[in-house]
Design goal:
The protein has four helices and no strands. The chain has about 210 residues and is mostly helical. It has one domain. Helix 1 runs antiparallel to helix 4 and helix 3 runs antiparallel to helix 4. The chain is rod-shaped.
Length: about 210
Amino acid sequence: MKLIFGILFILLSSCALNTKQDVKQTSLSESGVDPKYSVAKDRSEFDKLRENVPTEIRQQNDEKALIAELTAELKYPPEVAREKFNNIVRKKRDIFSKDMSKIREEFNKHEKSERDAYLKELKEEREEFLKRKVDQDKRSQFFSEQDENRRTFFSEQREKRDEFESDFRARRKDFDDYIKDKTDIFNSELKDYSARWKDKLDAEKKVQSESN
């Protein structure tokens, strides 16, 4: 088990993803995912006692505690231990999906607001310009500049969208990789747990058989 936790420590030391987006981002731990998505039992009652402990260390300790609680002692059948772990993972996936949907909604809202404001500004400039009498050259120059500015604006918006989508995919990949890592670690521990559980059942049957 020490080896498993050693692997866990290495996995959790990967660098967090930095984002260039203007939309609100959640803080990331060293595993590349927000601590709120950590595959760990809720230990909020101990938070006050651990205020001076770095977040990533608390996350590591909580993950170790969860796996140990599910596999250290032979308290229930292996399938029950797996179901408990799967339930936690399922809840973390739900939280992550909801948060990512909110991030996308906020970005879309900001993008649309920015676009609408810019188009309104162009329209007002155009209406104000058309109130004045100008020669054909100035008229052509004005509309040419407006058209160029419009193309520049939408080009910049596309770049921001591309950066957002790239960051969005990276954050999802970080989360999926994190969940896979924790599941692999749990499965390794569960394999040993299952063997010990079988030995326990065999021993109990032997004792029962001898008593009869």
